[in-house]
Amino acid sequence: MKKILFLCMTALMSVAMLTAGCGDNAADRDSSSSSSTAKTLKIGSSADFAPFEFQGADSNEYQGFDMDLIRAIGKEMGTDVEINNIAFDGLIPALQSGNIDIAISGMSITDERKQQVGFSDPYYDSGLTIAVKADNNDINSFADLKGKKIAVQIGTTGAEEAKKIPDAQVKEMNSSADTFLELKAGNVDAVVNDKPVNDYYMVKNSDNTVKRVGEKLTSESYGIAVKKDNTKLVGELNAALKKLKENGEYNKIYKKWFGTEPTDNK
Ligand code: GLN
């Protein structure tokens, strides 16, 4: 009987010690960071959208404005970030299923997406523009795209807008890089992409075979997306973003990728 009692007591003590151990760890986690998300944040990004997210030719490291920004935000929040390359049209499903915590991918804040995910404050002002082959003189505006063949990236605002153009044949490609390949191959008359992406392509591919035409069709703002109703994480992202704008870090990252100071720090 004594032996049984002893065994029971030992078991109880072990449970008590384990519980105490867990408690200590939880306390450590809380005190190690001001953020309640002191863990590795899983980031999703479609790394085919230079200069916001891409992999360099000489290194597999994810580079770009969004990549630098989310690393700086992670640092500010006291968390590590793990970047996962996910196709653009798979990012919202990945947030919804909980496979990732955050999507940063040049994603425009739209009413439709706001039904599905939560967004941070806007962090970059963008909009759509057209690019055509350098020797094309027929297409000078969106109105001229009527009845034309247009390449766009699947699941994007560019795809949505192109589908509204009367009689246009819209080819949905996996990436913006693929839209340019279609254009150069002569398979389409024009591409519709985000302005900074079209602009960056012109600078990086200075063979002058492609040109940008017309004004911006839309005014769009990029936001960082999280699972819908995760207002806590949105609050933490916004606080970090605000801090980076105040301490000059946002401007530094902006200048690195766009060569200028942001005129409007959204
Ligand atoms: N800004 C566009 C959108 O949100 C394109 C984004 C992208 O291709 N990465 O739809």
Automatic annotation (TrEMBL):
Residues 40-260 form the Ionotropic glutamate receptor C-terminal domain. Residues 1-20 form the signal peptide. Transmembrane segments: none annotated. Residues 40-261 form the Solute-binding protein family 3/N-terminal domain. The keyword Disulfide bond does not apply. Coiled coil: none annotated. Keywords: Signal. SUPFAM superfamilies: Periplasmic binding protein-like II. It comes from the Bacteria. Pfam families: SBP_bac_3. PROSITE patterns: PROKAR_LIPOPROTEIN, SBP_BACTERIAL_3. InterPro entries: Iontro_rcpt_C, SBP_3_CS, Solute-binding_3/MltF_N. It is found in: Cell envelope. Belongs to the bacterial solute-binding protein 3 family. This is Polar amino acid transport system substrate-binding protein. The lineage of its organism: Bacteria, Bacillati, Bacillota, Negativicutes, Selenomonadales.
